[in-house]
Amino acid sequence: MIDHFGINCADFDKSKEFYDKVLGVLGYTRQMDFGVAVGYGAEGHPAFWIGDMNAGNVAGPNREMHVAFAAKDPGGVQAFFHTALALGAEPLHEPRLWPEYHDKYYGAFVRDPDGNNVEAVFHGGGPQT
């Protein structure tokens, strides 16, 4: 159900040091680092992300959380996105491939009623054209 999730951190440098060490003893390492966000996990899959809440990527004072739900296929990603919009969610990113994550990462992002960044993702590529 949960593919990955992320939290935002007030002291990003301190949080990176903390998670590098506490997750390191559990066998998890940095899998991706975008400067303002770091993904931890194993075997190339960042399942837990931390973000710099001072980098301007946070909507409002609630320090949004990010959660990504696993979809079974590209149609699931599209259905998630369109259903969320029909319910009044703010669109963040329409369904598309995200090659900066990996070449078959197909995802869509919306903001839920409480301001959280919610995503559906399929790791097998986009719809066939």
Automatic annotation (TrEMBL):
<feature type="domain" description="VOC">
    <location>
        <begin position="1"/>
        <end position="123"/>
    </location>
</feature>
<dbReference type="Pfam" id="PF00903">
    <property type="entry name" value="Glyoxalase"/>
</dbReference>
<dbReference type="InterPro" id="IPR029068">
    <property type="entry name" value="Glyas_Bleomycin-R_OHBP_Dase"/>
</dbReference>
<protein>
    <submittedName>
        <fullName>Glyoxalase</fullName>
    </submittedName>
</protein>
<dbReference type="InterPro" id="IPR037523">
    <property type="entry name" value="VOC_core"/>
</dbReference>
<dbReference type="InterPro" id="IPR004360">
    <property type="entry name" value="Glyas_Fos-R_dOase_dom"/>
</dbReference>
